[in-house]
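User: Predict the complex.
Assistant: Input components as received:
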Amino acid sequence: MMNVACNDRDRIFRDGTRVEWAALEAHAVSCPACADELRAWKSLSVAAQEMRDYTENPASWPRIERALAEEAGRKTQPARRRSWLSFLPGISLGWQTAVAGALVLVLAISAGWIFIRGPHRVENDKSLLKSAALENVERAEALYVQAIDKLAAEAKPQLENPATPLLANYHEKLAVLDSAIADLRTEAG
Amino acid sequence: MGTMGLALPWKARIASVPRERESRVEPSEHFSGGPNPAVVDAITEDASLAAGCRAGNLQTYERLYSVHGARMRNLARNLLGNPVDAEDAVQETFLKVQRGIASFRGQSSFVTWTYRILINTCYDARRSRLRKKEVANDDSAETLRPEPRAPGAHPSLRMALERALASLTKHQRDVFLLYEVEGFRHAEIAGMLQITETASKNTLFQAKKIFA
């Protein structure tokens, strides 16, 4: 049996081996101070068990299970959406751009075809041209254009000499839009 | 929250039941020779739990709960001070495990990783409760509000201990609860609290010195 002294006590309490603990207990038989310390130290461990309550709560697992299932359900929903579009990620960005370009070209050709063929179709459909509803639309459109022109005329002095940064910004944006519209018209011939 | 990258040596596996009290000595100091069968079993069980959870198997989550649920709830209750918050923390932990299992690389014990998440969840809950109190202009300090426990528990002893725990620092209280109440080893506590084993031993010593 190894021998320990009172000044070994704290070290053994902190990080003692089984042999050192046994030696301390043997020492405590003849040392009242160490016996008290040892008793107090052990009683803490015993008292700590009072804070242990492992009684089962039957409602606990079903609640967790439900939450886990809901979470798993939420996870699989976006995955399903992804799998529906799964043919896209397999195609390189270049091909995707080419496909998008081709789609735009098809749409443009279709629109051109309808534009060219439209008048013939409308000529054959005289009843639509005579419709009162069409007249109403044309009248409303004319009024709308007039109203916009009037508003533009009224706003022109203020926009050309903007009093606030907001107006200056607005004027700049309108100028950009006008320029873009003019470019498009030029391109369209 | 940094709960996912926990690295704990494989030898520090968590048993499903707390160890014996009375002059507890770290078993790793006394093992010699070949691998301990109990440790090997714990490693196998841990890997199996991790794999099942990664596969999204609800039965594995149920096994994790049946083995560790009561202990997790008790730890959460002692950290948070009431059973309702503890139930929420345990549920939140399971959800976090489910969300984060893909990032778990298996370099550490899965169960320790789970407890680490639980402890962080309890910290978050405590912080959140404190913030709510501050918002409500409640000047009273954040204190644990223990609820009645098992009928067999000695109420006065438990209350005295809980009052004494309130005098410890948060860190000392956490180490004391993990070691003395839940029966974890210092190596396990080190993994959970991301401290060294020596720091865990020293902290426990300081905590018990205050009590004794």
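Residues 6-49 of chain A form one domain.
Let me know if you want any component modeled separately.
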